[in-house]
């Protein structure tokens, strides 16, 4: 699976995004291995949940409280159409994302 759509949408909305992905089915690329059981997958899922909790306990306090890094300004150089040419209805509809440009 991929988080590409989420990453693109977050960038357009100037939202900083990080993905934490963990594997539950280790045989998906090993054609010579026996298929895993649901029990094995759930075992990995439970272990991953515990690992994720530990990572988050360490990571969350390190996230800056003020959103002033580059991810929050990704539209600065992305908007090329002059503001006067934006349809007013569209600009209003996009106010939650474009608010600082309106």
Concise summary:
By secondary structure, the protein is mainly α.
Blueprint (SSEs and pairs):
Layout lengths: L3 H9 L25 H22 L28 H6 L1 H4 L4
What does this structure look like?
- With 102 residues, this protein is mainly alpha-helical.
- The chain has one domain (4-101).
- The protein is built from four helices and no strands.
- The chain has helices at 4-12, 38-59, 88-93, 95-98.
- The two termini are 37 Å apart.
- The relative contact order is 0.14.
- The model has no long low-confidence stretch (mean pLDDT 89).
- How much helix is in the residues? 40-55%
Beta strand %: under 5%
Main beta sheet, described?
Answer: none
Q: Count of DSSP helices?
A: 4
Order of helices and strands: HHHH
Rg over CA atoms: 21 Å
Distance between the termini: 37 Å
Question: How confident overall, as mean pLDDT?
Answer: 89
Overall number of strands:
0
Low-confidence stretches: none
Question: Any key phrases for this structure?
Answer:
102 residues, 0% strand, mainly alpha, single chain
